[in-house]
Design brief:
This is Cu(I)-responsive transcriptional regulator. Keywords: Cytoplasm, DNA-binding, Transcription, Transcription regulation. One of its GO terms (biological process) is positive regulation of DNA-templated transcription. One of its GO terms (cellular component) is cytoplasm. It is a single chain. The protein is mainly alpha-helical and about 180 residues long. It has two domains: about 70 residues, Multidrug-efflux Transporter Regulator, Chain: A, Domain 2, CATH 1.10.1660.10; about 80 residues, no CATH class. About 65% of the residues lie in helices and about 0% in strands. The protein has eight helices and two strands, in the order H-H-E-E-H-H-H-H-H-H. A two-stranded antiparallel ribbon has the order 1-2. A hairpin with a 5-residue loop joins strand 1 and strand 2. Helix 1 crosses helix 3 and helix 4 packs antiparallel against helix 5. The longest helix is centred in the middle third of the chain and has 35 residues. The protein is elongated, with a radius of gyration of 23 Å.
Length: about 180
């Protein structure tokens, strides 16, 4: 089958198939004489496996590990369970972090009157420890590449990484 047929059969996009090939989750497809990618039932099975793993939030590295275990007839279920347990522990930690962020943000939102006055308890709390004389005198103008990285979830802060993870889970639930 061609890439479109394989994508439909697996429930993923053709773009994702090319991406999975590029990063090594799926071996490069055989090609027809005219250069079109060709897929069989085995590749569709792997793509379904990847899709279902992504729905559970497994990382690409974890999915690669799981595919390796799936392909190894000498594996033990203990090895597979260990991968899933590590992922579950990571998710539980992320949930704790999200709960902490939500609790902190709720306090800020509840402290703000949200009226027509310039005083804002949210800004006051966020700038705690900064003097009013060091208040910024400009509105930031993000560089396009930085703004795109932020929008896609890239960044170095753990909070930004956490938000990228949240967006990733939503995207995977919604599009694959």
């Amino acid at each position: 089958m061609n890439i479109g047929e394989a994508a439909a059969a697996a429930g993923v996009s053709a773009k994702m198939i090319r991406h999975y090939e590029q990063i090594g989750l799926l071996p490069e497809a055989e090609r027809s004489e005219s250069g079109y990618r060709l897929y069989g039932d085995r590749e569709v099975s792997v793509l379904r496996f990847v899709r279902q793993s992504r729905h559970l939030g497994f990382s690409v590295a974890q999915i690669a590990e799981l595919i390796g275990l799936w392909s190894d007839s000498q594996r033990t279920s203990r090895e597979v369970k260990a991968v899933a347990q590590r992922h579950l522990a990571d998710l539980e930690e992320k949930r704790r972090e999200i709960d902490q962020m939500m609790d902190g943000l709720s306090v800020l939102v509840n402290a703000c009157h949200g009226d027509d006055q310039p005083h804002c308890a949210i800004l006051e709390k966020l700038s705690l420890g900064s003097s009013a004389q060091h208040q910024p005198q400009h509105k930031p103008q993000l560089k396009k590449t930085l703004a795109k990285a932020e929008a896609s979830g890239a960044g170095t802060s753990s909070h930004i990484d956490l938000m990228a993870w949240i967006r990733g889970v939503r995207v995977h639930h919604g599009t694959h």
